[in-house]
Design a protein that fits this description.
Blueprint lengths: L4 H14 L1 H9 L1 H9 L3 H33 L2 H17 L11 H23 L2 H4 L5 H28 L14 H18 L1 H5 L10 H18 L4 H32 L3 H30 L1 H21 L3 H29 L5 H13 L4 H13 L2 H19 L9
Length: 420
């Protein structure tokens, strides 16, 4: 068992490990491969990807609060994180079998959907470990450090994908470019990356020692605890409004992440190699923003104001991104937007860690995940519907701005005496 800085590093390293999935699969490579290499056309692919993300969002909304409460009641947080990580890695690796052409549509969507559910559920148990590795006055910097390390991990995986798999021609591994094996192999890389770097947190932060309640007792206690927490929200208006605000702005952020590369590929004609370079550059600015603004969060801004400033910047830059026709301008604006992507999420996590009582922190992070996913189907569904109805990726992406604005407006009403 590690102590002090070793425990913090082991916890933060999991962000390095699991960030490969949203970076390579959900955003920059596999998402673009689906719309360009599998779907009938980019607009159809964006709509299909949207419906898949919507279905995954419903599953996450139904499962996350209950499983979070069960983990608290049963003392099995680490075991459940392990299970979610393994499920995510296996489902991601199976994307290898999604060959080019519409015949692989259902397989690809199912693999990514299952992996997305596993990834999001895993973050419930992972995020709930934050109060056990950082004191209240350091929640922002530790959360920001982990988020910055996560962007660095996504960057590292993208670099390996680009220079070892996607770019070499001929491939040193004998990959068939005509069958898109050089692109599909990036999913296998992500699976290995998650398992290879994700294990230290399981050693550093073990579950409480036995005795533990049986699974049946843990489920009964967990569901009872969720009912108690939900009934208590009206007596905790700051928590209730924060969760409501996060419901909308996280829906917008998740939709932005899920469709950023799809939009770049379809709207600005970026090929896979350029998408990877775009992702590498974006991860650099995002990692710098998460780490730097995490320090400002503790020393100056506070978690709530950090989220508000980040959302305001994302809305302003995002509006310009939807309007510009120049690829050069799109690149420049996206890199600026990246500076604020990490802080919006990292500060939300540290704010929740400060608000949640220690005895049921995982259950509260289950509600945290619920608030980010209970309408998680809505953003992708609205985007998919608008894209399908208009035939315009630009019109579909513009819907993200409404979710971000609504979430920010509600967060403005959240007031708490907490230093966070």
């Amino acid at each position: 068992m590690m102590a002090g800085r070793g425990k913090v590093f082991a916890w933060a390293l999991y962000d390095w490990a699991n960030s490969a999935f949203p970076t390579v699969v959900s955003t920059f490579v596999i998402a673009a491969y689906f719309t360009q290499g599998i779907a009938a056309d980019p607009a159809t692919g964006q709509a299909q990807w949207g419906w898949m993300q919507a279905a995954a969002g419903i599953a996450i909304a139904l499962l996350s609060p209950a499983l979070g409460a069960v983990a608290d009641a049963g003392g099995r947080r680490r075991f459940m994180l392990l299970c979610c990580t393994v499920v995510t890695a296996i489902a991601t690796g199976m994307i290898w079998f999604a060959t080019p052409g519409p015949g692989s549509t259902l397989w690809a969507l199912c693999c990514v959907g299952v992996a997305t559910v596993g990834f999001e559920l895993g973050t419930v148990f992972y995020n709930a470990m934050l109060p056990s590795v950082a004191p209240p006055e350091k929640l922002g910097r530790v959360s920001g450090l982990a988020w910055g390390l996560g962007y660095a991990g996504g960057l590292g995986c993208l670099l390996v994908a680009l220079f070892a798999l996607v770019q070499p021609d001929p491939s040193p591994f004998g990959l068939d470019r005509a069958a898109a094996e050089h692109v599909r192999a990036t999913a296998v890389l992500v699976a290995v990356w998650m398992i290879g770097f994700g294990w230290p947190v399981l050693l550093a932060l073990p579950d409480p020692p036995p005795p533990r309640p049986s699974w049946g007792d843990a489920i009964r206690r967990g569901l009872s605890e969720i009912g108690r927490l939900l009934r208590g929200l009206p007596r905790n208006p700051a928590m209730g409004r924060f969760l409501l605000a996060r419901l909308f702005y996280t829906d917008g952020l998740n939709t932005l992440f899920a469709f950023g590369a799809i939009y770049a590929a379809g709207r600005h004609g970026m090929a896979f190699e350029e998408i990877l370079m775009f992702g590498i550059a974006l991860n650099i600015t995002a990692g710098l923003g998460a780490a730097a603004i995490g320090l400002l969060e503790d020393r100056l801004l506070g978690a709530r104001n950090t989220v508000l400033v980040s959302l305001a910047a994302i809305i302003a830059v995002g509006t310009a991104l939807v309007l510009v026709d120049s690829k050069t301008a799109f690149w420049a604006l996206a890199l600026v937007l990246g500076l604020f992507m990490g802080p919006a999420q990292s500060a939300s996590r540290s704010f929740m860690a400060a608000l949640a009582p220690p005895r049921d922190v995982t259950a509260h992070f289950g509600l945290f995940a619920l608030s980010g996913r209970i309408t998680g189907f809505l953003g992708p569904a609205v985007l998919a519907g608008v894209t399908a109805a208009s035939g315009s990726q630009q019109a579909g992406m513009a819907t993200v701005l409404g979710f971000l604005t609504l979430g920010g407006a509600i967060l403005l009403t959240v007031h708490t005496r907490s230093p966070a």
